[in-house]
Amino acid sequence: MKARIIIAVLLIIGLISFSLSPFFQIKNIEIEGQNILREAELREMTDKFHERNILLLNNELIESTLLKNQYINDCIIKKHYPDTIHLIVYEHKPLGKLINNGKYIVFNNNGDILEEGAMNLKVDVPLIKGVAYSFSQDRIIFPTEFAKIVQALALIKYDTIKKIDFIEYKSNTEIVMFLKEDIEVLIGKNKDIEKKFKVLSSSMANIMENNSEIEYIDLRVAGKPVIKVKN
Q1: This prediction's pTM
Q2: Which CATH number fits domain 24-91: 3.10.20.310, 3.90.1170.50, 3.30.200.20, 3.40.50.300?
């Protein structure tokens, strides 16, 4: 009986020693899903987990570390024993930026402030002009006119958003947009603005495919877009 107890104790000690051995030290951290953030930035955040024991490392600690970055909305953590952590990150989609007190403020569809700075922003998103807004803690409160623009931006791909230089709200009957290539886009009224932005997104894909030189795009009638090609 005593011999069995001794053997059991030795086995337990052996298992504990093995679980704490370098065999279970984290050697690889794989990251996927990032579109906005650079991989180097994410690796800088996770470097401290290298050489940690994968069995003892709490997933909540990894999650809380990643979620400190305002661009990260959620993450999935998978442990591949004995030495690899696989991270899937889900980012907030930046939609636009405002100028407030001389600084840019980047926001998402909920009005969450993702980034503030005078220059060197992580993202390339359109500047929104001529709209009223207010703040509540770390969020932007959108009035109706602004909210419609935000909702329309949320429906188009980020690749299209990056091509927009600025959107200016002049009145309920006049919204204008300029693309990075200095192409004016006439939006007109804010009615059907979501449909107009979707049309713009599909038009941009065709323009890029055909390598067309565009003078302006007229979306004032949502169902009848006019694309004026330079002579």
Answers
A1: 0.85
A2: 3.10.20.310
